[in-house]
C-alpha cells in the first residue's frame, strides 16, 4: 500500500507543481506559491513513502526480515530522514495555508500589497521548523545500541520521537481545519454584505476572489481531518 500511495502522491503533486510553475498568472500569486510549497512537501513525503515501500517489499521478498539493523543504520536510509522532515512539513504547511486564507479575508487590501517577502516567510518558516524538529529523530538512534528488523519501523527505532511526531503533526493538521470554522462564519457574513452592495468596487472584486479561493480550499481541507489528522493521531501511519 505504501508503494501505491506514494506513487499516487508523487504524480498528483507533480501535476499541481507543474501547473503553477507553467502559469505566470498563478506562480506570481502568494496563495499559489504557498500551495506549491505544500505540494512540494507532499511530493517529498510521497516519494519517501514510495521508496520506503519498495525497500520493505524487497526486504520481505528476499527473506531478510529477521536480519537486524541498529536504529542509527535505519536513520541512514534515505526514505527514513526524508519522512522525518516531510511529515512535519506537510502538516505545518497545511496550517500555514489556513492562516494565509484567514489573513486574506481579514485584511484583503493589505494582503494584495504585500510583496514576495510575505510568501518567503510563510514558506520557509514551516520548512525550517520542520528541519529543526526532524533533527530530534536522530537523538535516540545515536544514543542507543539496540537491534531491530531491517524493516526499520519508526515506532521501534525511534519510539519517543514517533510519539512526539504523531501527536504534534496531527494537532497541526487538525488546527488547519478548525481555523476554517470562524473563517467560514466571517466569509458568510461578508457574502451577505456584498449581496446588498449596489456599486461593486475593485476592493469588493478582490475580496470576492479571496472568498472564492478560501471556500474552495476550506472544502478540500475538510478531508484532512478524517484522512490525515485522526488516522495520524491513532497511529495508522506508523512508518
UniProtKB/TrEMBL annotation:
GO terms for MF: G protein-coupled receptor activity
Spans traversing the lipid bilayer: 6-22, 43-65, 85-107, 119-140, 167-187
Gene3D superfamilies: Rhodopsin 7-helix transmembrane proteins (1.20.1070.10)
InterPro entries in the record: 7TM_GPCR_Srsx_nematod (IPR047130), GPCR_Rhodpsn (IPR000276), GPCR_Rhodpsn_7TM (IPR017452)
GO cellular component terms, A-Z: membrane
Lineage: superkingdom: Eukaryota
Protein's name in the database: G-protein coupled receptors family 1 profile domain-containing protein
Organism: Toxocara canis
Amino acid at each position: 500500500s505504501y508503494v501505491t500511495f506514494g506513487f499516487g502522491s508523487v504524480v498528483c503533486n507533480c501535476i499541481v507543481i507543474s501547473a503553477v510553475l507553467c502559469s505566470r498568472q498563478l506562480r506570481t500569486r502568494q496563495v499559489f506559491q504557498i500551495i506549491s510549497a505544500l505540494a512540494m512537501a507532499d511530493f517529498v513525503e510521497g516519494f519517501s513513502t514510495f521508496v520506503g515501500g519498495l525497500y520493505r517489499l524487497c526486504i520481505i521478498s528476499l527473506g531478510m526480515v529477521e536480519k537486524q539493523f541498529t536504529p542509527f543504520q535505519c536513520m541512514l536510509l534515505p526514505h527514513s530522514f526524508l519522512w522525518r522532515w516531510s511529515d512535519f512539513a506537510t502538516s505545518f504547511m497545511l496550517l500555514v495555508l489556513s492562516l494565509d486564507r484567514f489573513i486574506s479575508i481579514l485584511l484583503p487590501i493589505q494582503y494584495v500589497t504585500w510583496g514576495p517577502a510575505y510568501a518567503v516567510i510563510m514558506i520557509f518558516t514551516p520548512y525550517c521548523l520542520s528541519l529543526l524538529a526532524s533533527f530530534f529523530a536522530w537523538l535516540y538512534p545515536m544514543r542507543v545500541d539496540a537491534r531491530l528488523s531491517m524493516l526499520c519501523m519508526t515506532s521501534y527505532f525511534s519510539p519517543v520521537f514517533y510519539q512526539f511526531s504523531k501527536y504534534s503533526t496531527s494537532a497541526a493538521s487538525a488546527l488547519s481545519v478548525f481555523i476554517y470554522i470562524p473563517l467560514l462564519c466571517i466569509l458568510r457574513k461578508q457574502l451577505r454584505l456584498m449581496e446588498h452592495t449596489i456599486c461593486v468596487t475593485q476592493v469588493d472584486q478582490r475580496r470576492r476572489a479571496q472568498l472564492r479561493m478560501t471556500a474552495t480550499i476550506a472544502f478540500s481541507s475538510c478531508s484532512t481531518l478524517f484522512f490525515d489528522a485522526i488516522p495520524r493521531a491513532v497511529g495508522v501511519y506508523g512508518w
